[in-house]
What we know:
This protein is of the alpha+beta class and 140 residues long. It contains 1 helix and 8 strands; from the N terminus they run H-E-E-E-E-E-E-E-E. It has one domain: Porin (Beta Barrel). The chain has one helix spanning 2-24, and strands at residues 40-46, 52-59, 66-70, 80-86, 89-97, 102-110, 116-124, 129-138. Strand 4 and strand 5 form a beta hairpin. The N and C termini lie far apart (68 Å). The model has no long low-confidence stretch (mean pLDDT 87).
Amino acid sequence: MLMRMFKNKYTLFLLIFTFFITTACVNDNEDEDLREYFAGTWKCKEINTGFAYNVVIKIDSTTLNYINIYNFHQFGNNEIVRAIVNDLAVDIPSQLTCNNSINVRGSGLMQNNKTTINFDYIVNDGNTIDTINAVYTKIY
């Protein structure tokens, strides 16, 4: 009888220990909105054009995973380019901006420091296709 009780306690201890081990591995940031890292004012430096200007990124409150980039490629503060955030990666799906006259598309990756984004994108105005490499540095 004593041996049987010891086995049951040992089994119970293993079950409780296993429970604590598996729950300790759960990601506590599961509900974290990673778009918050992107929100703010950024200094954009286009490497191949030499242009430098500010952009503002805001969380799109109407669409999950989307952000809105204002003044993208110096189009102006009223022009919006939409992008999709997936972890620290950004996808700029093909879209028309500037009164449907310019097509843009591309992608970016936020660095682990959360203050730098490296972008590669294409800007097509119908006459010229520009391939841009840009670095965004967070101002605030």
